[in-house]
Amino acid sequence: MMLNKLYKRCLCSSSPFPSPQPWLFVGLGNPGDKYKGTRHNVGFEMIDAYAESLGIPMDTVHCKAIYGKGFVGDIPVFLAKPQTYMNLIGESTGPLAAYYKLPLNRVVVFHDDMDLPCGVLRLNDKGGHGRHNGLKSVIYHFHRNTEFPRLRIGVLGGLLVKWIPKHFCSKKST
User: Which family does it belong to (predicted)?
Assistant: First the structure.
């Protein structure tokens, strides 16, 4: 259901361009087994769920990220899980957006949000970093531009949705 809302909000707009412009979806997280299942990696888990639902293999490394590409209808989508650790995640995200010459309003960043109850999702079209070090890095590598959408994924107690395992809301990340 949430993926359907994301599809409708991001991918179902009419375009004056002859061919559909691509979208880049970036999940924030930390690489390695040590961080699997922690709340910081909910962005990675969201990308994995989105890739699986679209049948997009995440089997390439590009711009320091595990990467996949595919289509939603005739719209190209790129999915990325940067492998640079949270505080440096912009080192991957900035070059990915630049490589594909994407305007920042075509880059959606999925990240954990400690200010939202677990399982609550908020799609914002722009905003600041909200004390999130990964977003600080992304903003820095977007030349301090905050005009990019982000999907905030609540990880603090409360309501759970089906695709977020309970351990995201109870396991502390280091």
Answer: Belongs to the PTH family.
C-alpha 140/C-alpha 130 separation (Å) is: 14
What is the tens place of the pLDDT at every residue in 70-117?
999 999 999 999 999 988 998 999 999 999 999 999 999 998 988 889
Counting every residue, how long is the chain?
174
Q: Is residue 6 part of a domain?
A: no
Q: Is 96 helix (H, G, I), strand (E, B) or coil?
A: helix
CATH of the domain at 39: 3.40.50.1470
The segments of the chain whose pLDDT lies below 70 read 1-18, 130, 157-174
Number of domains in the chain: 1
DSSP notation for 44-78: HHHHHHHHHHHT----EEETTEEEEEEEETTEEEE
Please state, in angstroms and rounded to a whole number, the distance separating the CA atoms of residues 128 and 144: 10
pLDDT at 72: 94
For residue 58, what are the domain limits?
20-170
Catalytic residues: 40
Q: Is residue 81 part of a domain?
A: yes
On whether residue 68 sits in a domain, the answer given is: yes
By the 8 A CB rule, do 91 and 141 touch?
Answer: yes
